[in-house]
Fold these 3 entries.
Entry 1:
Amino acid sequence: MTSAEFEQAVEAVKALTTDPGNEVKLRLYGLFKQATAGDATGSRPGFTNPVGRAKYDAWAKLSGTAPEAAQEQYVAIVRDLTAA
């Protein structure tokens, strides 16, 4: 897998015409952050920011995952979404 494939997958997500649902979007967000920024940093948002908290949790769950592995998983999910 190349970084070009990852970039294409990122663009493909932006072009999706159907909403894949919050669970899939959170998974993609976490994988994207892990692939581009590494392990989660900063403090977890408070209960007054449920969206930020869910995004942080999705990213933090992937702690220790290699960026290359996160890219591969991201591309695999996008392939499934765009093949449907």
Note: Residues 3-7+19-83 form a domain with the Acyl-CoA Binding Protein fold (CATH 1.20.80.10).
Entry 2:
Amino acid sequence: MENVSGNSYRFVVTMNYAAQLAEIRFAGAHSAYDDIDAATV
């Protein structure tokens, strides 16, 4: 796990290990993360 900007942001990422790919589905502040449903982003 990495500390990004003083741990000010959250990321929702989908991983495809077979293809060795990662897709960032959401990047934002903690307050913005509270407003989303991470399971459906």
Note: The chain has a mean pLDDT of 88.
Entry 3:
Amino acid sequence: MAKTLFDKVWDRHVVIPETPEHPATLYIGLHLIHEVTSPQAFSVLKERGLSVRRPDRTLATIDHSTPTLISPDGSRPYVTPQAERQVETLLTNAKTHGIETHGWDSPHRGIVHVMSPELGATQPGMTIVCGDSHTSTHGAFGAIAFGIGTTQVGHVLANQSILMRKPKTMAIEINGTLGHGVTPKDIILAIIAKIGIGGGTGYALEYRGNVFEDMSMDGRMTVCNMSIEAGARCGMIAPDQTTFDYLKGRKYTPKDFNAACKDWLSLQTDKGAKFDKTVIMAAEDIRPMVTYGTHPGMAIAIDSLIPPADTAADKSALDYMQVTSGTAMSGTKINRVFIGSCTNSRMEDLRAAANILRGQSIAQSVTAIVVAGSETIKAEAEAEGLHEVFLKAGAQWREPGCSMCLGMNGDIGAPGELIISTSNRNFAGRQGPGVRTVLASPETAAASAITGIITDPRSVMAPPIPCKPNLGSPA
């Protein structure tokens, strides 16, 4: 029987099959933990006298509450004593239970969904969980990856499995040729705008078509990262040569890499496999996107007008954002720019932003910060001189971490400010009380930083090189 990618990975990890009365017991291949959702789980283990079942299948880092600025004396100014306790508690718990941890002294420390793929811990065919909703990022490698709650973090620590109902499957198919300036961030925002923030509820998404096949792993991670914003349980892209090239030579990749690649290739959806639902979009219809409301589904092409508010919730969102139906987001004054997060803090993202900012100056009215997703990326960016581009343009170049994505570490805006952000959520107050957030690509964020207003990146990007027609040899 023909199977989808999701079905194949699911079937490999079922310990006890699902029944009408009981969810399936699903084995977890990799458990990622950080300082925010793990302390309570470890406390429960201690209270019950339990140990971590598979510390070798657990990987820890610190990212959410970590400061991105270092004091002149070398100290780290935590925003609150509680934030510091979260970090120290994670480090202590991980050491107690023998869990590999990437703390302050690690060259790999960073955002959990950036660090794990860099180490090669994230692999095709795995089941991966973390106490963080954007665990869907790892589906870019052909893994079933999803966020779990604090109680479930405790369950996985104790028994390396989880209870779960099998979701339905949905194919998102996009074929064709992308237009100038269209990025993976624009693609996923366009998908969410089309199917809605609840459109993926109850489904595992598989992104299919030449647009995703041609995409880099950085781009694929951006797309899968925001699957949760459509309500999906997870998002996946089938492993292929692009996947293998990314993973080759990394710390945790299998020793017999060729055999592993052959197995991973077999995970691709079989010809004739049936999805419960299919959504088809044309690449040519997608343009650079921005959000205008208070969730990622409220997104439009940057050269479009804000649609009418059909519901009270939509009206409230527009009021919060201080925007009006029938007007453009393009040209709206901004106060801050944030380039970073588990969505857009990888090398491809930093290079794209630097290409626009090179030789330019950020508007005096704008504060811009750039935060690499990991120590590895920070070092690579500095080796390429990208940090000098950002600093010369007037941006701040900070230490790796989640930073302004959710503002847990003190990186926030002031009430009423408008921030154009490369992160994944634009909820009211997400980046500080009363702060208004517009989601966009690194290119759009960088272009807007220069002008001080929301700006179509195509207006500052070099035009595409036209293809010369093949006229054949002269007669």
Note: The first helix runs from residue 5 to 13.
